[in-house]
Amino acid sequence: MSPIILILLVSLAVGAVGMAFIPGIVGGGRADKRIKALTTGERATGRKTRVDPAKARQNRRKSLQDILDDQSEQNKKNKKISLKKRLAHAGMSISVNGFWRNAAILGVVVFLVTWLTGVPILLALVFGAAGAYAVPMWYVKQRTRKYQTRFLDEFPNAVDSIVRGVKAGMPLNESMKVVASESKEPVKTEFTRIIEQQSVGKNVAEAVPILFERLPIAEVNFFVVVITVQQQAGGNLSEALGNLATVLRNRKKMKAKIKAVSSEAKASAGIIGSLPFVVSTLISLVSPTYMLPLFTTPLGNMWLGIAVLMMSFGVFVMHKMIQFDY
Predict the structure, then answer these.
(1) Quick check: helix, strand or coil at residue 48?
(2) Torsion from C-alpha of 13, 18, 23, 25, nearest 10 degrees
(3) Please, is 208 exposed, middle or buried when counting C-beta atoms within 10 Å of its C-beta (0-12, 13-18, 19+)?
């Protein structure tokens, strides 16, 4: 073997040995630092801080909850609910044109009745406008509240039915079909719409949010979030829905408890609010001319208006006092 080839082989061997050991010598310090940072929570500043897993998890949950709350508040501010959606929230199948037609008929009837009974025409117009707009909107609001209450009464049973189906090995969409066919109204109708969305090609995660669009309440939002997260990230669906059913039942119990606690305040508000009308009616029956100055003189009209404003303010305050968020 020639000396040149021998020198090349020796150089190659030395280089290979150097490549094997030198990176460990040179970069070992930084590698150790990275490993140490991962194991002890060392920051870039060089301070060592031990991270509590429970506290970190709690902070992440709190941060996520704050983000969701901010997003919800922003949606409430930016999102204007149309009349069509309000009718859907109330479970009413009437069209928007049909609703306004019936409201206009009601307003005309109220105007004619008040005008023919001797009420001044301007005041009759005010009553007619209230009958055409305020009364129908109040009716829709009451229908919405009753519809949501009926849904929430049956919703925990529907979630339990889905949990039993999933534990028995049924797919999620098949469990929803069972709910859509066997549950009481209005849960049956709402879950039927979810099944119809799936029949046109949408998956479960895309079809379930229609339930929250028609019933924008917290309980339905919980259900949609659980289904969506499970479809995207996986996990034990039966356990998650079982916990959700427990939460729904606890919220239902809390609602009943709040209703019982506030019933006394509601009764007091009703008695106090109706007392002036009852007293004025009884006085008018005993002495018909006693309260006429309130209606026939400018000073009496002024004090009557002040009394109406004060009564309205008092009713509003009492109403706010008996409303609870839970």
Answers:
(1) strand
(2) 140
(3) buried
Task: Of 318, 322, 319, 312, give the one whose Cα is nearest residue 276.
Answer: 312
**Residue 178 falls within a domain, yes or no?**
yes
91 and 29 in a common domain: no
pLDDT, tens digit, for every residue of 44-99? Answer: 444 444 556 666 556 545 544 554 555 455 455 545 678 888 888 888 888 889 99
Q: Does 231 lie in the same domain as 106? A: yes
The parent domain of residue 280 ranges over 261-326
Cβ atoms 240, 252 nearer than 8 A = no
And the tokens for 149? 């209450």
In a domain? residue 3: no
255 close to 240: Cβ distance less than 8 angstroms: no
- Does 50 reside within a domain? no
Instruction: Tell me how far apart the alpha carbons of residues 210 and 82 are, in angstroms, rounded to a whole number.
Output: 16
- Give the global pTM: 0.64
> What is the rounded distance in angstroms from the CA atom of residue 24 to the CA atom of residue 75?
55
Number of structural domains found in the chain: 3
Question: Which residues of the chain have a pLDDT value below 50?
Answer: 17, 20-28, 31, 35, 38-49, 60, 63-64, 67, 71, 74, 78
CB 202 within 8 A of CB 194: no
Tokens of 65: 């909850």
Distance CA 24, CA 31 (A): 9
Strand partners, 48: 42
Residues 91 and 227 in one domain: yes
**216 and 280 together in one domain:** no
Q: Does 201 lie in the same domain as 95?
A: yes
Mean pLDDT, the chain, rounded, equals 77
